[in-house]
Amino acid sequence: MGNLSNKEELSDFQKKKLLHEYHTFFDLNKDGVLEWKDFQLAREKICEKSGWKDGSEKFLNAKRVFTDMWRYLQDDGDANLDGKVTPEEWIRMWQRLNSEYLTRKKEKHFEEKVDKIPDWLERYIEYKFNLFDRTGDGIIDIDEFEYVLGDFGVSPKSARTAFLLFSSNHELRVELSYFRQLCIEFCRSDDQGTLGNFITGKLDFT
């Protein structure tokens, strides 16, 4: 796995990545704050685009993922309890996750290879994998990656370049286990050369 940061505070580089996730994949109405309606809009758009019918396993999983993530944001991010999550509050949530991870690393029986993450984040990563894996064959390919990111305003050139980077020019199969590794690197790594930085299709966060 790529170099993960051991610093207590998130770096400016990490914050830029996480804010890109906030603005690109969640704040779809671009009003600068996240509300429950943003999560509903994102879920409905994604389910419709992906053909996940109401009542299907993937539809229900997406519903659980967005509900759990919103609850976590409310508990750990929405400091003033106004039902809105600002970019600053979003960063505060990820800062707490980072602090919890570093605390676990100091424990005697910590296993670096396991790299446990919260259940809601596991489900979010699996949901994102299913979103990209449009054919359902258990592997994300470059055309699927480009197609899905196109709905979020990422150019075909950027998407394809990013895919070639984190797949090492197609040498690495982007299965769920590897995709999970990339997502964790995106959230935790402060190394600008880490392959997980490119999982959203953005090539430069400087």
UniProtKB/TrEMBL annotation:
Boundaries of every EF-hand domain copy: 120-155
Pfam families tied to this protein: EF-hand_5
Source superkingdom: Eukaryota
GO MF annotation, one: calcium ion binding
Key words of the record: Calcium
InterPro entries the UniProt entry points to: EF-hand-dom_pair, EF_Hand_1_Ca_BS, EF_hand_dom
Family matches, as Gene3D superfamilies: EF-hand (1.10.238.10)
Name by which UniProt lists this protein: EF-hand domain-containing protein
Organism in which the protein naturally occurs: Arion vulgaris
